[in-house]
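User: As part of a screening pipeline, I want to sanity-check one entry by hand. Below is the sequence and the SMILES for magnesium ion. Please return the complex as structure tokens so I can compare it with the automated output.
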Amino acid sequence: MLQTVSESRAVGETQRAAYRCMLRARLLDDKFAALYRAGKIHGGVFLGRGQEALSAAIGVHLNKSDVFAPLIRDAAGRLAFGEPIIDAVRTYLGSALGPMRGRDGNVHRGRPQAGYLPMISHLGAMVSVVNGVLFARRLKGISGIVGVACLGEGATSTGAFHEALNQAAVEKLPLVLVIANNQFAYSTPTNRQFACADLADRAAGYGVESHSVDATEFSVCIEKLGAAIARARAGHGPQLVVATLLRLCGHGEHDDAGYIAPEMKNSPLGRDCLKVAEEFLLKKNLADAAQFAVWRSEAIREIEDAVAQAQREPAPDPYEEKWSALASEKLNELREEH
Amino acid sequence: MLQTVSESRAVGETQRAAYRCMLRARLLDDKFAALYRAGKIHGGVFLGRGQEALSAAIGVHLNKSDVFAPLIRDAAGRLAFGEPIIDAVRTYLGSALGPMRGRDGNVHRGRPQAGYLPMISHLGAMVSVVNGVLFARRLKGISGIVGVACLGEGATSTGAFHEALNQAAVEKLPLVLVIANNQFAYSTPTNRQFACADLADRAAGYGVESHSVDATEFSVCIEKLGAAIARARAGHGPQLVVATLLRLCGHGEHDDAGYIAPEMKNSPLGRDCLKVAEEFLLKKNLADAAQFAVWRSEAIREIEDAVAQAQREPAPDPYEEKWSALASEKLNELREEH
Amino acid sequence: MSITYLDAIREAQAHALRDDPRVFIYGQDVGAFGGAFKATKNLQKEFPGRVFDSPISEDAMIGLAVGAAIEGLRPIVEMQFADFSSVAFNQIVNQAATLFWRTQVPCPITVRLPFGGTSGGGPFHSQTPETIYAHYPGLIVLTPATVEDAYSMLLEAVAIDDPVIFCEHKFLYRHLKAEKLPTEALPIGKARIAREGRDLTVVAYSAMVQDAKEAATELAAEGWEIEVVDLRSVKPLDTDTIIASVARTGKLLAVGEAWPWGGVTAEVISRVTSEGFGLLDAPPQRLNAKDTPVPYHPNLWAAHRPTVRSIAAAARKILRH
Amino acid sequence: MSITYLDAIREAQAHALRDDPRVFIYGQDVGAFGGAFKATKNLQKEFPGRVFDSPISEDAMIGLAVGAAIEGLRPIVEMQFADFSSVAFNQIVNQAATLFWRTQVPCPITVRLPFGGTSGGGPFHSQTPETIYAHYPGLIVLTPATVEDAYSMLLEAVAIDDPVIFCEHKFLYRHLKAEKLPTEALPIGKARIAREGRDLTVVAYSAMVQDAKEAATELAAEGWEIEVVDLRSVKPLDTDTIIASVARTGKLLAVGEAWPWGGVTAEVISRVTSEGFGLLDAPPQRLNAKDTPVPYHPNLWAAHRPTVRSIAAAARKILRH
Ligand SMILES: Cc1ncc(C[n+]2csc(CCOP(=O)(O)OP(=O)(O)O)c2C)c(N)n1
Ligand SMILES: Cc1ncc(C[n+]2csc(CCOP(=O)(O)OP(=O)(O)O)c2C)c(N)n1
Ligand SMILES: [Mg+2]
Ligand SMILES: [Mg+2]
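Assistant: Here is the complex for your manual check:
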């Protein structure tokens, strides 16, 4: 398909934007890993290494009025959707000023009122919540929006995934369900998770459209996600995207991923999408080495500033904490403790 | 495919056996409906009217050593699997001598130690239990067996269905999952239940084989179920059977099914499989009118005897009831009540 | 004209749909069919585009409701039977119940649970899961015992900013009748003295309130004056009203249709003894169902759960202390 | 050599696999990886064909275990975290728990739940769901508090003919150590006097037993002798041992890490006051977690749950009564 000059310029801008989110996400993840090793983070640290292209490709195609339910490996998509780095850092460091105010941590963050849904840990559970937001928007007469829910291939084994995808199909909601098949669910390989030839084969059984994408291929990834999101936005109902990649880290930073065979790491699947993206941008003259260096140092400064700031910020104070899970003020007066 | 004389004789025998189970099931269901109207049954009554061909076609292909998890519309399959009519009657009438001893009722009956699993009400929940029985048999070195789990098309919307079918596929268990698409889940039509063109399209997404069958077609039904069950028995892994039919009754006997459009009732889907079977057997000289009359009167006597017997039998006695849900005798001594 | 408990539930939903454009109803067979119990009869016709049939996907039903609540709507979800909420358990306790606490965004969903035992219901159509929901932080659990409360509490449930588990007793559906719908009501979280007395406090909720009142009538013939407290809401639980009653009577019996381990009766006794120990002049007692699944056969069923007779017997034992 | 609570759990499973060919293990990442907490480390290698990785399908995991139990096997299912058992809730309480009662066919499955709070765990990796399982008839719920009990109770759990919810505290995994594995043990259903005293009975279970003992040590310095009862099993609950202790001390504090509404502490207080009212010479008290999800931040987390300090403070209040 031929592109006009302005179209191809727009594509180039999107690619540059996506790359910058990938880079910022990678550096942010590296920082969290370092803080983890230094004992500065409580609980787990979960990285998106290898998944940045896919995740950024989602985020760059979303508008502020869209809905996004990222998962544990979506730092890049979160940034692309507009999450400020300080939100991520505050959540990991438990700052009282973060969006979760120390009540929840690490990847469990979001701002529901902004269409940015904070995951609960139970895999698959967020998809129907995205459906609900989309359903409500439709009831309110809002159209032209989409909702993206992210899952790993392991999460496709949950009942919640199935119920929600089917529900979206029945309601013909503008849901884009992105499955990152990164070959492992924690240590479990795909042959212990499903037996179909390709997870994209599931789409027909729900009556939804499907898209397969090699998520190590930077430009293809951006293009395909763009297409899937556009289909949903145009009213063609739910879109199932199945992306293939390899997790280039442990499940969490506590895990050395010794169970991933070297052959797999050395296969095309094991390519680092960030490197692929850099090569692509260089080749297409969308950035040069100097530009990369600037972006990198800008990102590092932004991250370091955020960390320094969050570390100075107050931790949540148990004595000021209200210790109630209820929104209704009048019911709080009745609450008892013992 | 050409059949030898003895093969075709065997097929004829299977068809006669299936028909008799269908007839007995229909008459038994009619009796339960009558008892319900007469106020003799507590709780709901659920009929298999229109589903007898499918259900019987399952049962006649199972051996005693197989596993069967029928659902609410499977009186015919239960009889074909070997359930004595008295078990059904005792359960509906709450006899203390029935397999559920009045603790559970109506369609919630079975004998797990005989591979005949008693459903819990929660739709989809029995499929993984069948998997477990098959998994255990494999661990014990038993092969050549199959397990059949029955569901309605409405139950395909449950997470339990999905998890269990996927689990069976991963373990390559000899599971035959039979979906009776009878067009309604209670009052809900299929377009509020799923959006795929055909539920059989789901098979590819699990990596299992699929079979579609018109369940109003008696002989085709028997043949196709036979084929599916044989594939599973021969080690080809889970088989998904999607059968098409119309529920020729209410959801339960309390429901007049006024929501089913007359056009649907009058369409080929609305044919009564029992009539189709009779015509088939007549045409093939597998039975004549006199034979039908004998079978009918035998069945009626058997049912009437069973009802008379069960009505004479003791009801469960709350004073003799142990009121413990535990198998461990020693823990029962510790139990407290208040 | 007389109005049943079930009518009241239908009317409250009609009222909510009429008054508040944010309200919608989602559940299996709730549309044209009007629901398994007819609690949404004609609502789809009266309120087009506001009442939706769902697939048999309890987990996704609650998920969708939470998403809609995030957008500011006020969904009412009908579970066909309370028993089937077990497959929505995760979305209720981990998604809906934690949302506000985690994000400060309220989650105003109402989950209607047709619950409780009826003869012939059996193990999977009789359950009373109020305890498991009350145990989790972030949920309001309501158990109306009268036609008036069924109406006004459901209206309040929809208005409340928190997720509400609304336990409607299936036995009361057609059994309880009132002359008219109420125009005022106690606030959520307040218990009600359903019958006054000075010899013994019987705390009950949902269908057991009726049984407790009948037992009180029976005991009145023997000269005892039994006070019956209708909890109305099991979470929050109105300890003050219970303790004030025990202060008058000195004696306490807590009655529940649920299983004996944990649950409402344990919570009631435990609060009263912690906070009002000195008021008691006899050991407080509980009466619950037996610790087995709910039996199908009417004979077993009647023996499994508290009855007027067993409540009266338990009361007599305390009174004679 | 010293053995941790986690080692004990691994050893008990090795022992069960070795001694009983009917035992197998099923769970996410339990195979070559040895489980998220390494509780099944090397077991797949040592017992080929007996340890299986499952898909992320908690509902089907329990279903499969029930089917295998029907066939006479004795599956051990590991949930990766207790919190995720919420999506298996239905199969646990409605399938596994009802099987024997409905059919007389036993359902000997053991569901291992790595449970309880650790700093930084947050709302979905810290839960203590023992109450919801104990509420349902047909389940045994065990909460070992020592290395020895982790070992012997897990062995007994596998041997028992009923479904067992085995709550292993994640904080104790590496924190508790013993010199050797026990050769004998109290039977399931018996509580243990973890520390003797005559001034106050503190009833606790799981990780709270350690905190209660430390609080007792603190109070000993002030001259108080605190008796600590370790419940070991929350269902069945050993009322006799608790009441015998209260008979000696006259005072009761029930401590639990779970949420305040309902639950073990309510059940304990309620039983003691119903059955041993006259033994109490002060109002019995409870100490639970706060009624919110479990917070992520260590500061909030430490304030959310009972601690040595808050147990000691609650005890002092009762002692000064
Ligand atoms: C219902 C549920 N079960 C178990 C877990 C524990 N768990 C967290 S992440 C994970 C693996 C997820 O694998 P996948 O979905 O492939 O995502 P990935 O980590 O590869 O990105 C598991 C088992 C969970 N969070 N939720
Ligand atoms: C998890 C669950 N939700 C709801 C119900 C209530 N229910 C019982 S049967 C039924 C309809 C089932 O429809 P389908 O699966 O098509 O089977 P059919 O009745 O048509 O044979 C419903 C909703 C249930 N039993 N289980
Ligand atoms: Mg993965
Ligand atoms: Mg159907």
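Points to compare against the pipeline: Residues B 152-154, 182, 184-185 surround magnesium ion (ligand 4) (CB under 6 Å). The mean pLDDT of chain C is 97.
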